[in-house]
């Protein structure tokens, strides 16, 4: 659809996911309750799709093929797609989330002898007696400041893993050629964006000046309001659910920030604790900006790093 044909999406009045947590020691509130109650509205790229899950399964399976004994896995968050993926027989999966509503409403349920979710902060969790073979998660680094928050979470993963353990995570990275907010809105008006979730990620990344500064989610909402998009026309053109679009208003009054480093910037931090094994880019909308990266513990790094 040509841009001129969508000009009616620009309203003459202003507007009437909560997919973030917080960096360590940040004053911003964690809004897991908002996420939990809206979880059914989330979609790719803010939730892992079937292709993402297959890549994570392959990473775990490759690791298991090179070792003996049952697998001990630690899941950051309660992402149901990861919890319910095909785990090797005998796996013991522990999931950590500091939001009780996320555990109550999103977690697919404990299964004795296989998986269990507990309320805990990733940064404060300490292994009781044994370390984990795998730490896995989806988008865990994006809500953290770069590089401090990334370094802190990488160190946390390193401390939780065995000397041969691996970290598997889907990251959100800056576009190879950074976009402008105007370009993102142009694609929105031309119906060239497949989901509102993809639009939010693109707009947030376009508003970021650098990985070090990141972007406030409140600024994403401000940009959306300033664009004065006609909601009815947008929904008619795209077929999107109103509830999914209105999730952007969960950003109202939130001080949380997102960061979108590039792959080189990610590697600069991760290489302090890990050896890089693989980066996989998938063929779906925004897949080139949501690589799944696998790392192996760099054993010579002190555990208290």
Question: Which secondary structure elements does this structure contain, and how are they paired or packed?
Answer:
Elements: H1 32-38, H2 50-64, E1 72-76, H3 80-83, E2 92-97, H4 100-105, E3 115-119, E4 132-138, H5 148-160, E5 161-170, H6 181-189, H7 196-207, E6 215-216, H8 217-227, H9 231-238, H10 242-246, E7 257-258, H11 263-270, E8 274-280, E9 292-297
Helix pairs in contact: 6-7, 7-8
Rounded to the nearest angstrom, the radius of gyration is 20 Å
- Sketch the major β-sheet: 7 strands, mixed
Which superfamily, in CATH terms, is the homologous superfamily of the largest domain?
A: Vaccinia Virus protein VP39
CATH architecture of the largest domain: 3-Layer(aba) Sandwich
What shape does the CA trace take?
Answer: globular
Uncertain runs? 1-8, 10-29
β-strand number: 9
Mean pLDDT: 89
First-last Cα distance: 53 Å
Q: Can you count the helices?
A: 11
Count structural domains.
2
Helix content: 25-40%
The helix-strand sequence is HHEHEHEEHEHHEHHHEHEE
- Amount of beta strand: 15-25%
Structural class: alpha/beta
| CATH fold-level assignment of the largest domain | Rossmann fold
Which oligomerization state do the chains in this entry correspond to?
single chain
In spatial order, strands of the major sheet run: 3-2-1-4-5-9-8
CATH class of the largest domain reads: Alpha Beta
